[in-house]
Every structure is written in structure tokens, then in C-alpha cells.
Amino acid sequence: MSFFANADDQGPTGHEQVVFCQDRQSGLRAVIGIYSTALGPALGGTRFFPYPDEQSAVEDVLNLSRAMAYKNALAGLDLGGGKAVIWGDPEQLKSEALLRAYGRFIESLGGRYYTACDVGTYVPDMDVIARETRYVTGRSVEHGGAGDSSILTAWGVFQGMRAASEHVWGTPSLSGRRVGVAGLGKVGKYLVGHLIEDGASVVATDVSEASLAWARSTYPQVDLVDDTDALITSDLDVYAPCALGGALNDDTVPRLRAKVVVGAANNQLAHPGVEKLLEERGILYAPDYLVNAGGVIQVADEIEGFNFERAKHRASKIYDTTKKILRLAESDGVPPAAAADRLAERRMAEVGRLRGILLPRHGF
Prior knowledge:
Blueprint (H helix, E strand, L loop, with lengths): L2 H6 L8 E7 L4 E9 L5 E2 L2 E4 L4 H21 L5 E8 L2 H4 L2 H13 L4 E2 L8 H7 L20 H20 L8 E5 L3 H12 L3 E5 L3 H10 L4 E2 L3 H5 L5 E4 L18 E2 L12 H7 L3 E2 L2 H4 L2 H10 L4 H9 L1 H15 L3 H17 L12
Parallel strand pairs: 3-5, 3-6, 4-5, 7-8, 7-10, 8-9, 10-11, 11-12
Antiparallel strand pairs: 1-2, 2-5
Family: Belongs to the Glu/Leu/Phe/Val dehydrogenases family.
EC number: 1.4.1.23
GO molecular function, one term: valine dehydrogenase (NAD+) activity
């Protein structure tokens, strides 16, 4: 793999910085990707995952950090995009020493990158990392943080789903709609609650038996199916991928029966061109980095002193932004993913340009 060629193939600018971190004694092997700081310090979570090889870990951090730059731009945040991955099985490898070693590497970047929770990392982990660095969000309430960011992630996805529903069916209500949720993890659980409360009929699946047991006991009205293949071929109005990325690909899209796709998973499009395949099939896709921005809005609010109601109000605006992008896509004759990219790139260019205006520093 040509690393620089791969990093440069991630949008119009390419990555600013990619940092490889290792602490042999604790077993830490991490990669931090900073895609852009045009709008401010890069913000993005840390994923702790047992990648099959180093190349897979690097590719994931490159894709995820780029998506964070676009997500933060569309969310109206004065923050750039970054992401980190820790390579390994968190069940076997995670320890205080590893997390604190990782925190010291973050601190060494001097504020260019703020981290938060992602797959395999949780609020208590952020509290441990914060013992070594100032640049952590998503901390526990006891330590002055925002707590579980999946709460507003799910809220934002629900708002995006309402906007897509209004665009397709003329009403923002999901009442009477059949929604398929793939993944009942941190975000999927909250999303199911919003859907049930709104009157939707929910069918779901998950690879974890514990998550399925939770659904049976908490929401017995939810229909559970064996796997994602059974879900995507079900009679659905809306499909919500809420697990790992790549859910929309050359195999799944032709078999998908839903009219709308709105989900929490990052990087749902397996490769460029899938958005066109969705459009050809008449399936409306609300870009993942647009609708799942509620979590980053929540943890970003923590940087200025967390206020949940303020953060929820900001996350609710995902509804309006989604409507705007869907209208723009329709008027320009492009897929919503292309319209979202254009808006994000425009903001990064127009607002980021202002950093070229030199400001006097204290003491000049």
C-alpha cells in the first residue's frame, strides 16, 4: 500500500497529518488521523477494534477522519475532522496503562486533535485518558463531561429520518412506517425507543445475543430477525444501518426493499458510486455523516462547558439541515451524498480561508 497515495485519495485536500503510536509494554498500537483543521481543532472518536491487519486499521482511520471533517462542517461546528483507531481486541487488551499511554500521545499533539468515544471505547475510558491529556470529550458527568454521546446521536438520526420521511411521504411522522434497524448497540437502542414512541413498527437484528435479549425484554413489540440479510429483504419503508460501515454495497443495495435509508453507522457507502446505485433504484439516502452528527454536537458542547438542553437544541437542527440537503440534491439533480459533500466543502473553504487573516496575539 502506498500510504501517501492512499491518504491523498480522501477528498479534495488529503490528510494533514497521520500519527502512528506505539507503547510495547501496554500493547498500545494506535493511529491518529487528522484530515483537516481548517475550521478548528480536529474532533473525532477513538475506535478500539481487532482489525485483521495494519492496512485495514489505516484505511479505516483515513475514511473515518475524512468523514468527521465533513460531519463537523455540516453540523456548523468550528472544529476540524480527525479520528483514531486502537488496533486490538478491547476485551483482551484494554487496560489503564494502555489508555493512559494513548492519552499521552494525544497530549503530544498540543490540541490539534480532541478525542471521544467510538466503537469499543466508552465514557469511563475517556475519564482514564483524560488523566494524561486535556483534549478529551465525552467524559462522565461526574468529571464535568457530557456523558453518553449516543443519546444525541440517536436523536439526530431520528431527526434526519423525520426529514427524509417528509421529503418522500409528505409527513415527518414515522407513525405506521416499518423501520428496520441493523444494530442494537449504543445508538440503535435509543433510536428504537424514539421510533416506538413515534408510532413506527420496528424490525431489528444484531449479532449480539445480549442485545437481542435486551430488545425482547424492553420492547417486546419489536420483530427480531436472524441477520442483516433477512432484514434488508424484509418489507421495509426505512432501513437504518446502525452497526459498522460498508452496509450499503453492490450486494445489499440491489436486494434492499426500503424506500429510505437513514442510519447511525459511519461510512455506510462501501465505495464511491454506491450513492448512484441507490438513486437509480429510487432509494433516498440521507448521508450518514449528516444525520449521525448528534453525538459530535454533544461532545463538542462539552468543550465550552456542557449543557444538555443546548446540545439537544443544536442536534435537533439536523432535521432542517437534512431537508436543505435533500432539496438541494433534487434541484441540482445529484444524489444527496454529493449535495452534502458540496455544502461541507464550501464551508471548509469559505470559513477556513479566514484563518489567513492574521490576528494579533497577546503581547505583540
